[in-house]
Amino acid sequence: MAYDRNHIETYPPNDGKGGFTMKQLYIRDLLEFNANINVTLLGWIKARRHHGKVVFLDVCDSTGTIQVVVDGSKVTADIFDLTKKIPPESAVKIEGKTHQTKSNGIEIVCKSAFVIGEAKKQISPQPRTDFDIFDISLTDQLLSNRHLYIRNPKIMAILKFRHELTTIIRHWFHENRFIEITAPTLTAIPLYEDGSALSLEINGEKVFLTQCVGFYLESAVHAFERVYNMGPSFRGEESRSKRHLMEYWHIKGELAFGDLEDIIALVESLISYTVKNCEERCSGLIKTIGTKFCTDGLNAPFPRIGYREAVSRLQKIGVKFEFGKSLGSHEEALLSKQFAGPFWVTGIPRKIEPFPYVIDSADQELTRTADLIASEGFGELLGVAEKISDASMLDIRMEEKGKIDNPKYQWLREMREFGCVPHVGFGMGLERFIRWLLRIPHVRDTIPFPRIFRRTIHP
Predict the structure, then answer these.
(1) Same domain, yes or no, for 223 and 366?
(2) Is the pLDDT assigned to residue 309 strictly greater than 50?
(3) Are residues 162 and 55 in the same domain?
(4) Does residue 13 lie in a domain region?
(5) Is there a domain that residue 20 lies in?
(6) Cβ pair 355, 189 in contact under 8 A
(7) Pick from 250, 190, 304, 266: nearest CA to 423
(8) 311 and 345 belong to one structural domain
(9) Are residues 225 and 322 located together in one domain of the fold?
């Protein structure tokens, strides 16, 4: 079984008959074993060290890393030669016996070794080595080879955190009696302007990839009263900020028989619950990532300022910002310096908000909406809104946005004439939430395979 690139004995033999049974034993389990137990380990070579007649292999799987000791005096020459030369990232099968180290840990003394899949391609830095994944000089290398660097422990930890976070969020929805609604990705109508949506043609009809599932949750909320969706959204409006992606995941919730105060309270409950549980459950992952977890979300209720006050505050510090403009990353960052944690900006102008949102009866230039701005300059996290239930108000807003004559929006009007009730909703970008909690420089590092403006879609 000498190491020969042209002839490597693999496990199982490549005879077309298979030979694997499902893996049952993981490194996490092995680390709890006693000494002198025969084990079979399936994993990947993370690193290799050769000292005379002994080879030390760091073998990893999805749950951790364990050291394998290959003593040249206790294995055949072929096995020793194999372990001495096999490249990092190769998949292996190791048979051996557990051994207690001087520090009371567990390692494996190798008896035999087999190659399952050789790593013929080598890249630098090696995916499982310790380097700064946020180093901008490595950005192109990491994105171009994301299919390989997804094995990096820090990237894995971020994605495991994402998994834990979504699990916690789903549990909050369940505990608060929300029903999950799976909404379509293809839609005939975008929430925002057509130019900001990604379009394609199907059977001669122009359709869009969803920007927001709010229209469909509005329909479902009149059946189930409390509904939510967690799924992908797409945007075609180019942005190169650190919080925008072409494809991202939306957390959406809708509630029947509620107003703005109700949805703000619910969102603050969700944020506090999520932060508390992530802090308790994800400390090991956060340590691996190497960032400091943000606990500012625990301090609900969050302070509020009106949009008009936000404009005034910006003008007082010398920012030329006029009423009716959307707050951008720069303005949000400046405002966040005036607060110790996240804060609400309420009453976003009707000029810049989508048509389904209620006009504020006390100030006709504003809507019954609010945006939650993250602390420390991380920008807008989410938005909440009262939805229009009155058909005449919807007509006014649709006419303002140039959609009143578009028959594809008629089904939204039909809902307003079919037992429609006051209802509220919120929408939060999952990647923005993760970025803020983990204090990560860019949202591209919070998703398995980021889709970024001005970058080829690869892999």
Answers:
(1) yes
(2) yes
(3) no
(4) no
(5) no
(6) no
(7) 266
(8) yes
(9) yes
pLDDT digits (tens, 9 = 90+) for 134-181: 999 999 999 999 999 999 999 999 999 999 999 999 999 999 999 999
Digit-coded pLDDT (tens) for 251-276: 999 999 999 999 999 999 999 999 99
Integer Rg of the chain from CA: 27
| 279 torsion bin: left (phi>0), alpha (psi -120 to 50), beta (else) | alpha
| Predicted TM-score of the model (pTM) | 0.94
Full strand arrangement of the beta sheet holding 205-209: 186-187, 205-209, 199-202
Query: Of the candidates 46, 24, 124, which has an alpha carbon nearest to the alpha carbon of residue 90?
Result: 46
How many angstroms separate the CA atoms of 88 and 120, rounded?
A: 9
Give the separation between CA 387 and CA 355, rounded to whole angstroms: 9
CATH number at residue 210: 3.30.930.10
Q: Is residue 342 part of a domain?
A: yes
Query: Does 60 score more than 70 pLDDT?
Result: yes
Contact 377/332 with Cβ under 8 angstroms?
A: yes
For every residue of 147-164, DSSP letters joined together read: HHHTTSHHHHHHHHHHHH
Separation between Cα atoms, residue 49 and residue 190, nearest integer Å: 57
Q: Supply 124's token pair.
A: 């630098």
Q: What percent of the chain has pLDDT over 70?
A: 96
H or E element in which residue 144 lies: helix 139-144
Is there a single domain that holds both residue 210 and residue 108? no
Supply the pLDDT for residue 13.
52
On whether the CB atoms of residues 152 and 128 are closer than 8 A, the answer is yes
In this predicted structure, what is the pLDDT of residue 192?
80
Distance CA 14, CA 441 (A): 45
The domain of 189 spans 142-446
Total of domains in the chain:
2
First vs last C-alpha separation in the chain: 35
Q: In 3D, which of 176, 387, 382, 174 has the Cα closest to residue 269?
A: 176
Looking only at the bridges linking them, the beta strands covering 423-429 and 91-100 are: unpaired
3-class secondary structure, 380: strand
Residues in CB range of 407: below 8 A, 6 or more apart: none
Cβ contact 186:210 at 8 Å: yes
| Of the candidates 118, 52, 432, 26, the residue with the CA atom closest to the CA atom of residue 244 | 432
Query: Same domain for 252 and 287?
Result: yes
* 227 and 302 belong to one structural domain: yes
Same domain, 308 and 378: yes
Residue 386: phi and psi, rounded to 5, are -85, 135
In-domain check, residue 122: no
